[in-house]
UniProtKB/TrEMBL annotation:
Membrane-spanning ranges: 70-94, 131-152, 164-180
UniProt name for this protein: Azaleucine resistance protein AzlC
Source organism: Teichococcus aestuarii
Any Pfam family the entry gives: AzlC
Region Disordered, residue ranges: 231-260
Swiss-Prot/TrEMBL GO biological process terms: L-valine transmembrane transport
Amino acid sequence: MVFTRAGMRRGARAALPLYLGLLPFGMVVGVISAGKGLSLAETLLMSAIVYAGAAQLLALELWADPAPVLAVTFAALVVNIRLAPMGAALGFWLDRLRGWRLWGTLATLVDHAFAMSIAEHRAGGRDAGYLLGLGLSLWVAWQAATVAGHVLSGVVQLPPGHPLFFGGTAAFVGLLVPIWRGARQDLLPWALAGLAALGTQRLGLPQPLPLLAGALSGAALAAWNEIRARGGPKAGSEASSGAGSEASPGTAPSGPGTAP
């Protein structure tokens, strides 16, 4: 694993096509923020610190006067809890980063950067700067989009059901393309996630519970499939035990340079 500025630049360039879905999504957040009475500074501050489109939209839907702080905080926490397994899945890079490289990468980690980085790693990429470059590029674009949406909110009136509101959904759907590994590995977990989310919604449970149900069920099945593909949870310990017995003292003479 390496971390280079060239990798950051390559990640920033790789993020450019994602702007097509990100910018409309950010503008919608800006428009809704203005409609809820947030100032431009408040909108920019929320986007800069929270930097999570789905959580921001959900928080704005729950926004009232006085603001239900606990309800909004809990809803945002539930939506963003998906970032925990994302961080674990990116351990091949994150575990080796330190200081500003690690904290900067974590602060700018979003679904888009996650999906692109997983695809990059599967293709043999070793530069962790790619992930930070993606995140920073998308972060800058997100700030610009939310500011533009807030500024134009007085001019542009979007009726319910306007195609621009589909921008966020389209962006997330587009993320599925680079991480799709084929029906054998991904079809069942993805189908289970969709069915769990739909079933939870049909039960009348409020957001973000359907999203959480879909994410957790799909992730659990995918993790179970990975464990089975590697021979089960005991495979690693058996392999280590076997390696230890083969390298036990006395089986081979020690020579110059042999590790102690």
